[in-house]
Amino acid sequence: MKILGLDYGDRRIGVALSDAFGWTAQGLEVIERRREGEEFDRIAYLVDQNAVEEVVVGLPKNMNGTIGPRGEICMAFADALKDRLQVPVILWDERLTTVSAHRTLIEADVSRKKRKGVVDKMAASLILQNYLDSKSIK
Fold this sequence. Notes:
By secondary structure, this protein is an alpha/beta fold. About 45% of the residues lie in helices and about 25% in strands. The chain has a 5-stranded mixed β-sheet, sandwiched between helices.
């Protein structure tokens, strides 16, 4: 069962895809948000082309666990995805995944310019991998 992971942002959406067994997450692409609604078409295409059975959207919570304005925007995005896709859409706590992605890229000595292009994809991979790991524990 393949699962798609999304790191939703105002300008870009990081996308990751699990393997068929749901064990590992790999960065797939970054969707640039240029025209309103275009990202939904691209996500629907990726779901269809990769036989995705579930979509996980990162939910940015405050450090105390509450949902702030950014989290509400992501929840609205997830609701809009649910209306357009024929697969379940799950919200997953993404606290510190972007920070972790930046730190990993800095430690790997990736230049600031190159980091900008891959940090969203890497954050999506971390969100998805955390979700996959939680499923394997149960």
